[in-house]
Amino acid sequence: MEKQKILIADDSEMNRALLIDILEEQYDVAEAENGVEAISILSRHRTDYSLLLLDIMMPVMDGFEVLAYINKYHWNDTFAVIMISADDSPANIKRAYDLGAFDYISRPFDSTIVQRRISNTMFLYARQQRLEKIIAEQFHEQENNNRLMISILSHIVEFRNGESGLHVLHVNTITKYLLKQLVQCTDQYPLSKAEISLISTASALHDIGKISISDEILNKPGRLTAEEFEVMKTHSMVGANMLLELPIEQQEAPLVKVASEICRWHHERYDGSGYPDGLKGDEIPIAAQVVALADVYDALTSERCYKKAYSHKEALKMILEGQCGVFNPTLLLCLQEIADTLESELMETSPEQETKNIQDIRNKIDYDRLFSYEKYAFLSCKQRHLQLLYIDSLTSVYNRRYYDEHFQGSDDIQAMAVIDVDNFKHINDNHGHDIGDIVLQSIAQTVLSCVRKTDAVIRYGGDEFVIIFFNIPQDIFGKKLERIRNSVDSLIIDDHPELHMSVSIGGAYGIGTIKKLFKAADNMMYQSKKAKNQVTIYYFDRNEDNTDNI
User: Fold this and answer.
1) Is the pLDDT of residue 379 over 50?
2) Dihedral sign, CA of 85, 89, 90, 94?
3) Dihedral (Cα; 225, 227, 233, 235), 10-degree rounding
4) How many angstroms separate the CA atoms of 86 and 92, rounded?
5) What's residue 246's pLDDT?
6) What is the rounded end-to-end Cα distance, in angstroms, of the chain?
């Protein structure tokens, strides 16, 4: 069997030699002469190691500094750390444990004790990791089940209400974008990422109380009478009470608490003119305020049995002019800030848009299911080989070969973007190539989530990506590139929240040859890189023949 690897970080050659002599028969042992060298080795190969034996007193970077660095970047999720030192004072031992050390071995070394402590540490660490993985999997499974049940329940309500089936999805999306913008606009509502996710999920239950309203009122094609409207208004209280009548242990769940607030108060208005309690201002929980605005926007822009859909611009105008009640001024500002994003995002999820794209999508590789066994197993060996031939193994988007073989010589491309990751060398140099790979994977998937399935995302080389756009309106093109930039700018890598990523994007719009568009987009990308985290676009004139002056 392959031996487990141990890294010894100690400035004393004699101490390293003693430990190697004790351990080399059972383990594969590597050495580092100081803390800086240990960090350098681990930044490149930390997944190879099961254990770090770390001395405290070292030049350049002592053991506690190394341990703090490992703890900061969660490297101890990959391997265990045992401190080794002649100083076994309680203060040192406590500090080591506080910084994430798994154990502490004092010098001089006793071979039997060293072997036993290392063996026990590896066993307990592996067991702890397995338990944490099981708990995490169970948690995610429970979260997915919660979302599934909420989705089913909310769609039952929608079905009775004759709505499109997308209302819950739209309210969730609008709520999420409003909350993200809100925390950027003001410190008044300090919501964490987890709280934003919780509120967005709970928003699906905002109209659950409508299950108690009769079909005659719920789906009446004309205007409700005063008496019918009073009945309709009861849905907010009914929904809240349904949740508050759950068993006591379920009532205490954060999701239920937030959902009950949203159910009861998502028809309140900032000036106190809403129902059921006539709350004013921030007497209304911020979760209910945000869902109220999201609900109104989607209701206006969606067709109902009693009205036609308003356009995006008309809906914004009506909300900002107060035709739908008074909302928190800060939230109205946030709505204006994300207006372009909402228009393109919700347009893409409309039934009409989905139907329009079906024929185009049919002949494209479905990224989300490319490696799904159920589909993959039915492809011939040759087909599987060809698909893999054109997919970048790291990021799972198209590769340079796909670009060269499918687009060289094309003269009917409408728009193109070239994307370069800002400061990527700095990320690799300071965090290691493993983290660099994770950054590229995350950015690639973020870009994919921002474009249509009919567009082609390509890893052109290194940290540079190319997007080929088909049949995209000019006004949507610029918004799309800004959406990509914003999405990457707000991207958070799990376990590495200290990393800030951004991209410089160059775009070229106007039907022409691939060479012409690429040259223009590439030049625009270098313009963007001068300031970084920018989008610069070149729009061709209809009669323009070359890009020599770009």
Assistant:
1) no
2) negative
3) -110
4) 11
5) 85
6) 60
Between the alpha carbon of residue 532 and those of residues 118, 294, 304, 402, 527, the distances in Å are: 48, 33, 45, 28, 9
Whether pLDDT at 296 is above 70? yes
Question: Please, where are the H alpha helices in 286-328?
Answer: 286-301, 312-320
Q: Are 538 and 526 in contact (CB under 8 A)?
A: no
Distant-in-sequence, close-in-space partners of 382: CB < 8 Å, separation ≥ 6: none
Rounded CA separation 261/290 (Å): 12
Query: Which helix or strand (DSSP H or E) is residue 357 part of?
Result: helix 351-362
Q: Mind listing the pLDDT tens digit for each residue in 206-223? A: 998 988 888 888 888 788
Residue showing tokens 């009506």? 318
The 8 Å CB, 24+ separation contacts for 314-322 are 319/293
Residue with tokens 């023949």: 545
Contact between residue 50 and residue 5 where contact means Cβ atoms under 8 Å apart: yes
- Residues contacting 336, CB < 8 A, separation 6+: 316, 320
The 8 Å CB, 24+ separation contacts for 215-223 are 215/160, 218/160, 218/161, 218/162, 219/160, 219/161, 219/162, 219/305, 220/305, 220/306, 221/305, 221/306, 222/306, 223/306
Query: Are the C-beta atoms of 399 and 457 separated by less than 8 Å?
Result: no
Higher pLDDT, residue 305 or 486 = 486
Q: What is the pTM of this model?
A: 0.45
CA–CA separation, 262 and 80 (whole Å)? 45
Sign of CA dihedral 265, 267, 268, 269: positive
Residue 293 · residue 178 · CB < 8 Å: yes
Q: 49, 67, 66: which is closest to 6 by C-alpha?
A: 49
Q: Three-state SS across 149-194?
A: HHHHHHHHHHHHHCCCCCHHHHHHHHHHHHHHHHHHHCCCCCCCHH
CA angle 213, 295, 171 (to 5 degrees): 105
C-beta neighbour count of 56 within 10 angstroms: 21
Look at residue 367 and give its three-state secondary structure: helix
Distance CA 102, CA 543 (A): 69
Which residues, 6+ apart, have CB-to-CB distance to 280 below 8 Å? Answer: 270, 271, 272
286-309 residues labelled b (16+ CB within 10 A) or e (exposed): bbbbbbbbbbbbbbbbbebeeeeb
In the numeric block, the tokens 């494209």 are attached to 364
Q: CA dihedral in degrees (36, 42, 43, 49; nearest 10)?
A: 180
Tokens of 318: 């009506």
CB-CB neighbours of 14 under 10 Å: 8
DSSP structure class, residue 205:
G
Rounded CA gap, 474 and 464, in Å? 23
Alpha helices in 219-338 (DSSP H): 226-233, 235-244, 248-251, 254-265, 286-301, 312-320, 329-337
Sheet holding 49-55, edge to edge: 28-32, 5-9, 49-55, 80-85, 103-106
Stated as kind and residue range, the H or E segment containing 77 is none
Contacts for 28 with CB less than 8 Å, ≥ 6 apart: 2, 3, 4, 5, 6
